[in-house]
Design brief:
Radius of gyration: 22 Å
Number of strands: 2
Pfam families: Gryzun-like
Protein name: Trafficking protein particle complex subunit 11 C-terminal domain-containing protein
Order of helices and strands: EHE
Number of helices: 1
Shape: elongated
Helix content: under 10%
Distance between the termini: 53 Å
Organism: Synaphobranchus kaupii (Kaup's arrowtooth eel)
């Protein structure tokens, strides 16, 4: 993922939307977010990251049986 420099002025907001496509099921780590507050240099990203999720659970998708699936092999033999 590319770095995107962004400046948000006091009293304003910015919304950024990303679509993340998981490659595996189970617990997955989210990309890290680095935040620099020019107005408050004593507050670092580690303190702010406490309030942001770092992992999500990706639920496995169920398989749909098709004609070539092993689950369908014995269906017509009864």
């Amino acid at each position: 993922m590319a770095q995107v420099p962004l400046r948000i002025l006091p009293g304003t907001g910015q919304e950024m939307l990303y679509n993340l496509y998981p490659l595996m099921a189970g617990y997955q780590s989210l990309p890290s977010l680095n935040i620099n507050l020019l107005r408050f240099p004593g507050i670092n990203s580690q303190l702010l990251r406490r309030y942001l999720p770092s992992r999500i659970f990706v639920k496995p998708q169920g398989r749909q049986a098709d004609e070539t699936s092993i689950a369908n092999m014995g269906q017509g033999m009864l």
